[in-house]
Every structure is written in C-alpha cells, then in structure tokens.
C-alpha cells in the first residue's frame, strides 16, 4: 500500500479515527498493531508471518538476557537468527550465482520472494537485542508494545530505522492524536508527497529513459540524467521519510529526522552525517564502533570504514554494483580522514562552495552504480558520460521544471535556515496551526501535490531494500 494512493488515505483515516475514539492506550496500541499488519499484508499476507517470527525471536531473546545477563550465547542466537533470515531472503541467490560463476557451474535462481522492507525491520529487531545485552534499556515484558515497535506502519517498509531505546518509551506514555500534532503531521505529509509525486516522479521519467537506453543519448543528456537521478533519489526517499514522520506525528508519535540537506555537504564524511541518518547512525553504533572505530590507529580506522561501507552498500541490495558503491564511498571516507588529519580545513565562501561542488560531483557519479542494472551497465553509463558523444538530447518540459524546482527548493531552504537559525533538516516548513497563513500553506502544498503529481506507477525506490 503506497503512501501516495487513495487506498492509503482511506486506510489512514480509519486508523486516525480509531486513535481518537478508543478510550485506553492499550486499545489504541492493539488497533495500531492490527492496522500495521494489514498495511504490511497488503503486498503479500505471507510477509506478516516472517515479521511475526522475527518479532518473537527478538522479544524472547530480550527476556532470556534479562534472566541471565551477560550470556553471549543468547545474544549470538538473537543476532544470528534475524541475519540468517535476511541472508536467505535477500542474499542467498546472489551468493549462489557468484559461486556458480566463479567455478563455472550451471543452475538457476531459487524461487525466493524478497519481502518488502525486510532490511529495515530486521535492523530494528537487532538494535533491540543488542541494546538489551549492553544494558541500554531493560527487556520489555509487554509483547503488544514490542510488536508495535517492530511493525509500526508509517516507517515499516522504508524507514527511518527506529531504535527501541527511542520508540518503546513513547509507547509507555498515554499518547493520542492532538489538533496541533495532526496539523503539523499533515503539513509534513503533504510536503513529502510534493517531493515524491511532483519532483521525484517527474524527474524519473527522463532519468529512467536515459539509463535504460544510455547509448542513444548524448553525453550532455547522460550528465543531466545522472544529476537528475541524484535529485530523484533524494526527493523520493526524503519525501517518504517526511510522509512517515508526518503520519506518525498525526497519531501522536515522533520519528527521527532522516535527512539534513545532504547535497550541501562539504565533504563525504559530512554527507554521510546528513544522508539516511538513521542507517548511518545504526551502522556507526552497531558495526563501526564495535569493530574498533577510530581507536586503534589510522590503518585500522580505514579498514573499519571500508568494512562498514561495503556492508552498508550490500545492505542496499544483493548485487556487485552496491558492493562497489559502498567500497568507493568507504575509500572516499578514508581519503578524507587522511586529508583532514594532515591539512587543516580553511574557511571562506569560495572554498566552501568549491568543496560542496566537488562533493556533489563525486556523490552524483557514485549514484550511477546504485541506479544501474548491473556493474557493467554502470561502466557503460560512465563511459558514455565522459565520451563527449552526440545523440538524443531532448529533455521533457516536466523534467526541466522538476530539476529547477528541486534546485530552487534546496537553495531557498538553505537561505531560510541561514536567516532564521533553524536546523536544516530538509523537512516540511513549520506552519502554525490555526493561523490563516498556516492553513493557506497546507492547502497550497496539498493542491500542488494533487494537481501536478505524476499519476503513473512509480514505487518508492527504497521499497526494494
């Protein structure tokens, strides 16, 4: 069930109404849990059993560690089982194909369906198990609350990844929708829908056509498509994050900010502090730091960065193109760390602008293997990009309008944040509930989104992860 659909609007209206009329927190939690499983089962009802299984594993692992603290064997089981499930559904065919190719063996792919959002709720269950072992939070004895934490539908299939230490305490409070929360949530949702359905989807029409037939387009058109895809994936994913945050806020819950205008970053390290923040912080907290972080010398730090980014790339998809994407970002992080240790950063508008431009060029070029169908396809796009070759160069008007609007959004947002001093989190503007300007702003966002939205089939990019 896509956020940008009439089915979801009807579904959410029913859920919101249930949260308004049900008298107790327990009843509201139960209604939210049922709604979350209905939402997830909309794709395939069989997925619900897999999510329930992982929920049960993490829940009972937490209880077992509470009774027998310090037992690494329980932690090992609580971590190994979800990872084994994730490996089976997402990576088994990839490794089998790689093994066959390496040894010249024949064989077809196994008939395994990839459950929507499995990477997201698997990481949530792992964070709970690890945090209970570390003593960062007590094991919960309330299965209803824990199951709702894993299955909470606004962020279930594409994040942001929510840690138990941040969300379970909210479920212990008697939260219900408020007029102010619903208004702010609707504002965030409308702004996210504007990003996704108007900007990302209209840019995608051109970017997809170029990537699908790159040999027919001129190098200039390919360059524009590469930039277009960089903007498409940002507005697509940050738009989903805004809609998820807005839907949760309407229901009375707070989710973490997932983007902080990443294309204004001045280096790759800063980019990863602004892009998909919930995943970056998860990888740092549960992988990079346990590996040793930056505490064991420069060589070990670079090795830890490479391992973290390669696995982060593999998290996105079972293909060598994602591995290369993660490895190149890891190499860039290592290079920046070595550079920063040797040379002090210099200020100045021109230097900052040049650093931002170079970072954006690097990030855009590395989105190519992320978008390409395979590593060979990515190489083909790169070769065409730097070949200065002639070819088709026609760009749809809606794509140009989307690119201009996207760049305008980033610039206006940056100028406003600089003037007001508010955080540049890339989310919806703070409209005031009950005022004329606030109501007008919300109406205009909804109107633009509904009138200018792309009405074709365009699923969220991160649904495949």
N-to-C terminal Cα separation, in Å?
16 Å
CA-based gyration radius: 23 Å
Q: Tell me the count of domains.
A: 2
Helix content: over 70%
- Helix/sheet category: mainly alpha
Q: Give a short account of the largest sheet.
A: none
* Oligomer kind: single chain
Q: Count of DSSP E strands? A: 0
Number of helices: 17
Q: Strand share of the residues?
A: under 5%
The low-pLDDT segments are: none
Name the overall outline. globular
Give the integer mean of the pLDDT values: 85
**Topology order in helix (H) and strand (E) letters:** HHHHHHHHHHHHHHHHH
Keywords, separated by commas or semicolons:
465 residues; mainly alpha; globular
Report on the architecture of this protein.
This protein is mainly alpha-helical and 465 residues long. It folds into two domains: 6-176, no CATH class; 181-464, no CATH class. Helix content is 70%, strand content 0%. It contains 17 helices and no strands. Helix 11 (277-291) crosses helix 12 (298-316). It is globular. 41% of the residues are buried. The mean pLDDT is 85.
Please write out the topology.
Blueprint: H1 6-21, H2 25-41, H3 46-67, H4 72-103, H5 118-134, H6 143-151, H7 164-171, H8 179-212, H9 219-251, H10 268-274, H11 277-291, H12 298-316, H13 320-342, H14 349-371, H15 375-385, H16 397-420, H17 436-452
Concise structural overview:
This protein has helices at 6-21, 25-41, 46-67, 72-103, 118-134, 143-151, 164-171, 179-212, 219-251, 268-274, 277-291, 298-316, 320-342, 349-371, 375-385, 397-420, 436-452.
């Amino acid at each position: 069930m896509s956020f940008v659909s009439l089915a979801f609007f009807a579904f959410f209206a029913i859920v919101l109404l249930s949260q308004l009329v049900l008298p107790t927190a327990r009843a509201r939690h139960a209604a939210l849990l049922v709604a979350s499983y209905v939402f997830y089962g909309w794709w395939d009802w069989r997925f619900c059993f897999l999510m329930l299984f992982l929920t049960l594993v993490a829940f009972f692992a937490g209880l077992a560690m509470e009774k027998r603290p310090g037992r690494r064997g329980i932690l090992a089981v609580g971590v190994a089982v979800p990872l084994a499930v994730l490996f089976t559904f997402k990576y088994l065919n990839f490794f089998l194909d790689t093994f066959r190719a390496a040894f010249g063996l024949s064989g077809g792919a196994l008939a395994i369906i990839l459950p929507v959002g499995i990477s997201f709720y698997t990481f949530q269950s792992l964070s709970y198990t690890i945090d209970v072992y570390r003593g960062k939070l007590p094991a919960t004895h309330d299965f209803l609350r824990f199951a709702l934490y894993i299955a909470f539908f606004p962020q279930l299939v594409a994040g942001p990844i929510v840690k138990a230490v941040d969300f379970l305490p909210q479920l212990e409070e008697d939260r219900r929708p408020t007029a102010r929360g619903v208004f702010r949530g609707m504002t965030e949702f409308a702004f996210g829908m504007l990003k996704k359905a108007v900007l990302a989807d209209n840019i995608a029409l051109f970017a997809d056509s170029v990537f699908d037939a790159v040999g027919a387009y001129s190098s200039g058109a390919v360059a524009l498509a590469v930039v277009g895809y960089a903007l498409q994936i940002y507005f697509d994913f940050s738009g989903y994050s805004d809609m998820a945050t807005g839907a949760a806020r309407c229901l009375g819950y707070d989710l973490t900010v997932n983007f902080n205008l990443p294309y204004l970053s001045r280096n790759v390290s800063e980019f990863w502090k602004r892009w998909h923040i919930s995943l970056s912080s998860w990888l740092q907290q549960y992988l990079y730091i346990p590996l040793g972080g930056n505490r064991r010398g420069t060589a070990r730090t670079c090795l830890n960065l490479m391992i973290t980014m390669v696995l982060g790339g593999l998290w996105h998809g079972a293909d060598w193109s994602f591995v290369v994407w993660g490895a190149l970002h890891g190499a860039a992080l290592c290079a920046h760390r070595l550079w920063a240790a040797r040379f002090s950063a210099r200020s100045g508008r021109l230097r900052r602008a040049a650093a931002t431009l170079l970072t954006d060029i690097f990030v855009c070029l590395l989105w190519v293997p992320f978008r390409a169908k395979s590593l060979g396809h990515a190489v083909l796009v790169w070769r065409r990009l730097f070949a200065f070759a002639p070819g088709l160069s026609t760009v749809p008007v809606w794509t140009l309008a989307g690119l201009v609007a996207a760049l305008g959004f980033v610039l206006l947002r940056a100028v406003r944040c600089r003037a007001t001093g508010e955080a540049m989190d890339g989310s919806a503007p703070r409209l005031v509930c009950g005022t004329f300007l606030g109501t007008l702003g919300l109406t205009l966002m909804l109107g633009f989104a509904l009138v200018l939205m792309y009405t074709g089939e365009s699923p969220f990019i991160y649904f495949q992860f």
